[in-house]
Inverse folding.
């Protein structure tokens, strides 16, 4: 295997995204908001090139889907306004990444760390309203935001036969939070997306 070798592959697994919420209490009112996510499926496709014994680069496309539940409560002047709404969310990501390996390419086991930057499009679509009390103002039926995303990962390539390798990767993705900005009161945390991914790559 010479330097400058191409590879391509794909992985699949599950995604866990972070929650957020906010509480504002003053002399005349109380407001509480939060969204609660659930785990969902994730897939990734990638094409890369081994440049040196321990250095590779790749470009990747990934997708994940996570159910959400938005909750908002406001009490003012003795009047309560409360809602709970189920929503779906999706993220589509395109990223350029650098991989640093800890063992030579001839090794059967090749652990690595990865860093990258890219763009993520995060969207959400409204579902069932589970609870509605008072004059509720719901989040938009649909919203979509595109932002810069930072990606880090640790993983392992395991050599099989005929240029094939099994790949495991644990991703951490960080971006601005499009879901928090739709909370009232608005949340403040970045969106964290953790993914456990399993798949295969083929070296050419």
């Amino acid at each position: 295997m010479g330097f400058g070798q191409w590879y391509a592959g794909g992985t699949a697994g599950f995604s866990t995204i972070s929650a957020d919420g906010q509480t504002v209490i003053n002399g005349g009112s109380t407001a509480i908001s939060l969204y609660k996510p659930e785990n969902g499926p994730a897939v990734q496709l990638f094409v890369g090139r081994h440049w040196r014994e321990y250095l590779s680069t790749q470009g990747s496309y990934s997708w994940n889907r996570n159910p959400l539940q938005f909750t908002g409560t406001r009490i003012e002047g003795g009047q309560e306004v409360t809602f709970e709404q189920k929503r779906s969310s999706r993220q589509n990501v395109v990223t350029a990444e650098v991989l640093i390996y800890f063992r030579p390419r001839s090794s059967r086991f090749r652990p690595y760390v990865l860093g990258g930057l890219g763009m993520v499009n995060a969207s959400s679509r409204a579902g069932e309203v589970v609870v509605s009390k008072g004059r509720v103002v719901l989040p938009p039926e649909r919203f979509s935001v595109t932002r810069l995303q930072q990606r880090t990962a640790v993983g392992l390539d395991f050599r099989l036969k005929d240029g094939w390798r099994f790949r495991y990767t644990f991703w951490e993705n960080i971006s601005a939070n499009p879901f928090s900005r739709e909370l009232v009161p608005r949340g403040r945390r970045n969106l964290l997306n953790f993914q456990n991914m399993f798949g295969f790559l083929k070296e050419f």
In short: The two ends are 9 Å apart (CA to CA). The chain is about 0% helix and 75% strand. The first strand starts at residue 5 and ends at 17.
